[in-house]
Amino acid sequence: MKFREHFGLDIGGADAKVVMLTPHGNNLKLVGFGKVSVPPGSSMSENHADQERLAETIRKLLQDAGISSRNVAVALPESQVFTRVIETPVLSEAELESAIKWEAEQYVPVPLNEVLLRHQILSVPEKNVLGAKMDVLLVAAPHAVVNRYMNILKLAGLQVLAIETEIFAISRALVGADPYSPTTLIVNLGATTTDLSVVKKGNLAFVRSIATGGEAIARAVSADLNIDISQAEEYKRAYGLDPDKLDGKVVTAIKPIVEVIVTEIKRAMVYYQTKKPDDPVRRMVLSGGMAQMPGLVNFLGESLTLEVQVGNPVANIMKNDQQAKAMLDDAPIYSAAVGLAMKEA
Ligand SMILES: Nc1ncnc2c1ncn2[C@@H]1O[C@H](COP(=O)(O)OP(=O)(O)OP(=O)(O)O)[C@@H](O)[C@H]1O
Ligand SMILES: [Mg+2]
User: Fold this and answer.
1) Would 88 be classed as within a structural domain?
2) What is the mean pLDDT of residues 12-27?
3) Would you place residue 1 in the very low, low, confident or very high pLDDT band (cuts 50, 70, 90)?
4) Residues with CB under 5 A from ligand 2 (ion)
5) Pocket test for ligand 1, best of 212, 290, 300 (most atoms within 8 A of CB)
6) Which stretches of 276-329 are DSSP H helices?
């Protein structure tokens, strides 16, 4: 394994998370980890003072987590990047290289000269009959977004070794590259977005991002119960979908939003199953902070009739008792940061 010393950084809509791992024999060992609230709006701001404040927040986070490495692998949030599995005519690598812009133009909602474009051939049909299509993973990251992140990290005194999107990092941490793993739907339930991805034989086979998440749920609780947002946040975390708490008022506020998410998941599954009828999704793994909301795992399992589990990105990573205990409550929040920390050179 080629491994260059670095840590993983995931700047989310709510919290920034860092994780550092180090090789230990054939395994990886946890060096340090931590999270901190991101100053609201700062990761989206072009303003120098905002960026400086976020850089300072990251520096402080690293210090508190006991991470001294200056090398970082960073994730771009799915909400700011366009990731999609597209179908193209069957082409060679070289042919696709020249055709990808034309293909991408049909899918990417912004002018292509404003984005960094990357692609990867996922699968080629066994028989190249007339009209056969191959699957290509397309990632388009706006230059403005990439530059903004690079700027913030530079202000934090960091050297960027790798940059990828959240979904790649999460799938590395929760499913890995095992070609024998069952086809898995990963649902990353963040603060501002819910990201869906299907991982097949270690590769992304489907990707969607939904613009709703934990913040929308807290806002609904706040509005319905007429309480301030921090109290609503507490109720969400403590009671979630439990019908017996507060006369069911919290669950009544939360349910419509969770149902929106369920509807989108169902729609995505139908789409995937239509495209790949011989490859049923076998299980669902949750990540992100919202995965911990009381009652959510059962609700999703019942609504989708799929086996659901909360992903633990540090399950196979060596850690001491103290680290294991500190990670216990929060593990799904660290999926992307762990995946970035696992990234090989
Ligand atoms: N125990 C809990 N119960 C319910 N919700 C929780 C819990 N812990 C965290 N959350 C929620 O999870 C969200 C934060 O999760 P996460 O860190 O995965 O999001 P993010 O990466 O900051 O956001 P995004 O990926 O959307 O940019 C917040 O909305 C927070 O309220
Ligand atoms: Mg996130």
Assistant:
1) yes
2) 94
3) low
4) 12, 190
5) 290
6) 296-304, 321-328
